[in-house]
Amino acid sequence: EVQLVESGGGLVQPGGSLRLSCEASGLIFDDYALSWVRQAPGKGLEWVSGIYSYNDNIGYADSVKGRFTISTDNAKNTLYLQMDSLKPEDTAVYFCGAQFGSWRPGDAYDYWGQGTQVTVSS
């Protein structure tokens, strides 16, 4: 059984930082690309960033480029999202998702986590 478990969310002031983690079990990292996707209150899903460790292919949404950094620790089967210079508009539930072979924003995900809340507010 595949499980994706996010953690690391919380309340942070504008300009602050958080690091999200997504621990994967039952899934081979070399086979799946992993993405962070967020959903702000009252809005739809927004792809944030994706990584495919097999070929080091990484991508970011324009809204987070230069502020967020995605990475993996394959030995720990864990995906990370380092979020710096946070803005109130980054407030959302952040999910990690897995897609076989490559990250493809807008396409269906094979597996999802349960999400972790990030709130950016003074």
Short characterization:
The protein has no helices and eleven strands.
Name a few traits of the molecule.
122 residues; mainly beta; seven-stranded mixed β-sheet; four-stranded antiparallel β-sheet; 0% helix; globular
Descriptive notes:
The protein has 122 residues and is mainly β. It is built from no helices and eleven strands. The protein has strands spanning 3-7, 10-12, 18-25, 32-39, 45-52, 57-60, 68-73, 78-83, 92-100, 111-112, 116-120. Strands 2, 4, 5, 6, 9, 10 and 11 form a seven-stranded mixed beta sheet that branches. A hairpin with a 4-residue loop joins β7 and β8. The model has no long low-confidence stretch (mean pLDDT 95).
Q: What's the helix and strand layout?
A:
Blueprint: E1 3-7, E2 10-12, E3 18-25, E4 32-39, E5 45-52, E6 57-60, E7 68-73, E8 78-83, E9 92-100, E10 111-112, E11 116-120
Parallel strand pairs: 2-11
Antiparallel strand pairs: 1-3, 3-8, 4-5, 4-9, 5-6, 7-8, 9-10, 9-11
